[in-house]
């Protein structure tokens, strides 16, 4: 089975092999499957670049295309999924460098759409905050819906769902939840910051997944989303901090470009964080 993988993938790290229980963990594709002990892996071609990919993983390591998972037609002769209808990650064990590589693959060929969406978002929110006297109050009201809309756009883009720019306004359809989450997050981080700066920063990381959770599950309440974010980020806050640190050098390089480089860097950061969120799910985590 390991030799079969090597035949289809130049980068062997894309599919670490676990021989003990016949499981292959597809870190880039965020999919967990069980192999047939006699037939091995079925192969299909990427619809975008025609590169060979393992059927059922839904992720092309060459161009970054991600398709919705569809079980093979002949399960007996192919690998058998452990569980259908699930969103699979690695429990947050995928290296940050690989998450960034996945983000670059997704953005490849689609930079224009991503740059346009994040530019419009920054233009609108920056313009609101610049309004004298009322800007601070206004962003307090609309900051939540815009944050939810941006999280939704980032997730859909990271999952190759081709979102349009209007998705950044979708948070206003969930205005109450978005506003409540924004205010509660701000309040809790502020109260922890009164103790010392460091506890406030730690809490900010604890709640960093809230808007992604709200985007994924429209039935979840604000309090439950806050609790779920804390659970997901338990033991992963330092990893997210290190992911952010990886962009410091890129940010410094953007400064001599008079800020133009940030048009590319901001989508890169946001899609990487969306990949980080998806990767936090366990290998056979039910979709939210």
Description:
There is one protein chain. This protein is of the alpha+beta class. The chain has 2 domains: 2-87, no CATH class; 96-279, no CATH class. The chain is built from 11 helices and 8 strands. The chain has helices at residues 2-8, 96-107, 111-129, 135-158, 175-195, 197-206, 210-216, 222-233, 237-245, 248-254, 262-280; strands at 17-18, 23-26, 31-34, 43-45, 52-54, 80-81, 86-87, 285-286. The protein has a 4-stranded antiparallel beta sheet, with no helix packed on it. Strands 4-5 form a two-stranded antiparallel sheet. A hairpin with a 6-residue loop joins strand 4 (43-45) and strand 5 (52-54). Helix 4 packs across helix 7, helix 4 (135-158) packs across helix 11 and helix 7 packs across helix 8 (222-233). The protein starts with a helix and ends with a strand.
Write the layout of secondary structure elements.
Layout: H1 2-8, E1 17-18, E2 23-26, E3 31-34, E4 43-45, E5 52-54, E6 80-81, E7 86-87, H2 96-107, H3 111-129, H4 135-158, H5 175-195, H6 197-206, H7 210-216, H8 222-233, H9 237-245, H10 248-254, H11 262-280, E8 285-286
Antiparallel strand pairs: 1-2, 2-3, 3-6, 4-5, 7-8
Helix pairs in contact: 2-11, 3-4, 3-11, 4-5, 4-7, 4-11, 5-6, 5-8, 7-8
């Amino acid at each position: 089975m390991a030799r079969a993988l090597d035949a289809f993938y130049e980068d062997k790290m894309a599919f670490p092999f676990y021989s003990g229980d016949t499981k292959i963990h597809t870190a880039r594709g965020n999919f967990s499957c069980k192999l047939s002990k006699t037939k091995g892996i079925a192969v299909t071609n990427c619809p975008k670049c025609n590169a060979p990919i393992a059927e059922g993983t839904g992720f092309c390591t060459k161009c970054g295309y991600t398709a919705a998972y569809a079980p093979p037609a002949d399960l007996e002769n192919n690998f058998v999924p452990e569980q259908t209808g699930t969103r699979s990650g690695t429990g947050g064990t995928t290296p940050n460098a690989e998450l960034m590589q996945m983000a670059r693959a997704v953005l490849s060929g689609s930079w224009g759409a991503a740059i346009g969406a994040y530019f419009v978002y920054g233009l609108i929110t920056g313009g609101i905050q610049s309004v004298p006297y009322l800007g601070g109050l206004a962003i307090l009201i609309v900051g939540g819906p815009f944050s939810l809309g941006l999280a939704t756009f980032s997730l859909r883009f990271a999952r190759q769902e081709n979102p349009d720019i209007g998705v950044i306004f979708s948070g206003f359809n969930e205005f109450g939840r978005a506003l409540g989450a924004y205010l509660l997050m701000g309040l809790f981080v502020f109260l922890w910051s009164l103790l010392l700066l460091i506890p406030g920063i730690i809490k900010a990381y604890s709640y960093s997944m809230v808007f992604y959770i709200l985007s994924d599950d429209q039935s979840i309440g604000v309090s439950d989303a806050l609790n779920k974010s804390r659970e997901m980020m338990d033991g992963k806050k330092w990893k997210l901090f290190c992911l952010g640190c990886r962009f410091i050098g890129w940010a410094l390089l953007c400064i001599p470009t008079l800020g133009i480089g940030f048009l590319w860097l901001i989508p890169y950061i946001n899609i990487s964080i969306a990949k980080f969120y998806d990767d936090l799910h366990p290998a056979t985590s039910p979709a939210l």
